């Protein structure tokens, strides 16, 4: 049960963690994303699906503060309860958010890891950004998180380049979660992995998301991944969100013709 659902049980008003209004960035006709609006609540997982070139990755870049929009707003309620307007904030403030209260899991783990330092140093770096300097604490956190993502803690001093692709992706997840973020962005986190490794990673992700009550925005082309992880879905096509709603509702009874095509194409033998 998400934090939002728990509050609703006690009839307490639930405030969005993340609010997006009319977010637009176009590189050409129907290239990018336009007119995107939604609210994301604590502990909720939002999946963004669609074909290649539909605008999913552009939207994720905008949501995570990596590039400015043509128009629209992104507001985040920080741990102090204050609303932060992402694109009115300074570059330094956005970087601080990404190092502390947010995380970003790249599709290619090599883009999200420092390949020249040890696994332990990759995990400890985010804690150091929060002011932790005690070597024993940093190493203990590294050992703990390697165990949580099913990597042998004895490999804490090994370089990430000696790890398999699946292990690198799990290490990247540990690096992001060690700082207890409230919001995680994921860009095709199972892309490029073989089926058995994908299944283990998805099982791990699902457990961590629920256990830590994380809010997540995940971009994926894989509807099976979306069904396993996402509470709600947004379906994108040609820069527009063509349908949005509960994951099971969209995957079991899609209303928009494109959503129907997307779902039926996966069901074909």
Strand % is: 15-25%
| Total count of strands | 10
- SSE string, helix = H, strand = E? HEEEHEEHEHHHHEHEHEEHH
CATH class of the largest domain: Alpha Beta
Approximate shape: globular
Instruction: Return Rg in Å.
Output: 19 Å
Domain ABC transporter: 18-263
Protein name: Putative phosphonate transport system ATP-binding protein
InterPro entries: AAA+_ATPase, ABC_transporter-like_ATP-bd, ABC_transporter-like_CS, P-loop_NTPase, PhnK
GO molecular function, one term: ATP hydrolysis activity
How are the SSEs placed, and which strands pair?
Elements lengths: L2 H7 L8 E11 L2 E10 L4 E6 L5 H8 L7 E7 L5 E3 L5 H9 L2 E4 L3 H4 L6 H11 L5 H14 L16 H13 L5 E5 L7 H18 L2 E5 L3 H7 L2 E6 L2 E7 H6 L4 H11 L2
Parallel strand pairs: 3-8, 3-9, 6-7, 7-8
Antiparallel strand pairs: 1-2, 1-4, 4-5, 9-10
Helix pairs in contact: 5-6, 5-7, 6-7
Pfam family, one: ABC_tran
GO molecular function: ATP binding; ATP hydrolysis activity
InterPro entries: AAA+_ATPase, ABC_transporter-like_ATP-bd, ABC_transporter-like_CS, P-loop_NTPase, PhnK
Explain the overall architecture.
- InterPro entries: AAA+_ATPase, ABC_transporter-like_ATP-bd, ABC_transporter-like_CS, P-loop_NTPase, PhnK.
- It is a single chain.
- With 269 residues, the protein is an alpha/beta fold.
- The protein has two domains: 3-101 and 181-267, 3-Layer(aba) Sandwich (Rossmann fold); 115-180, no CATH class.
- It is 40% helix and 24% strand.
- The strands form two sheets. It has a six-stranded mixed beta sheet with strand order 6-7-8-3-9-10, with helices on both faces. It has a four-stranded antiparallel beta sheet with strand order 2-1-4-5, covered by helices on one side.
- Helix 5 (119-129) crosses helix 6, helix 5 packs parallel to helix 7 and helix 6 (135-148) crosses helix 7.
- The radius of gyration is 19 Å and the shape is globular.
- The relative contact order is 0.16.
- The mean pLDDT is 90.
